[in-house]
Amino acid sequence: MWLMSATAFAEDLWFRQMEEGDRVEITYTSTGCFHHFTKYLELRKQDGVTFFTEYDIKWSEEDPTEIIEQKVLERVPLSRKDIRRLDRVLLHFRYPKKGTSTTMGSLTLEYYEPSGLIKTEKLHHSNGLTEFPDVKSFR
Questions:
Q1: What is the domain extent for residue 69?
Q2: Residue 99 and which of 37, 47, 63, 123 are 20 to 30 A apart at CA?
Q3: In the predicted model, what is the mean pLDDT of the chain?
Q4: Does the pTM of the predicted model rise above 0.85?
C-alpha cells in the first residue's frame, strides 16, 4: 500500500504516498524554556480522503504503554495542498537546518497498512525552527 518494494523499504515514506486504508500515528513532543507538551495525531486515508485527527490520550499509570482513554479532539479532511505542507514539515525534521534554540522537538511516526505496522521512524531537532502543525491549523 505504501508502494514499497524490498529494495525501497529503507527509503523515506511521505504522506502523499498513502493509499486507501493506510494510516500514520504521530507522537509529537516539544520542550523549551517555558513549555513542554505532547500531541497525539493520526493521518488516515479512508474512502479516498485523507483525514487528520488529534487525540487526547490518557495512559495507564500501572502500564505506560496501555491507553485507558482516547478522545477525538479534532478531525479534518486534508486537501492535496495540506498533505504537501505536512510532507514539507517531515522534510525539515529529516534534514534539519542549523539554528540555536532551547526548543527541542521529537516526532515518532508509525506507518501502518491494513495488514499492520510496516515502519517506525523517530526524528529529532533542536533548532527551534520546526513545529509540527496541529489539526486546527487546517480548518
A1: 19-138
A2: 37
A3: 82
A4: no
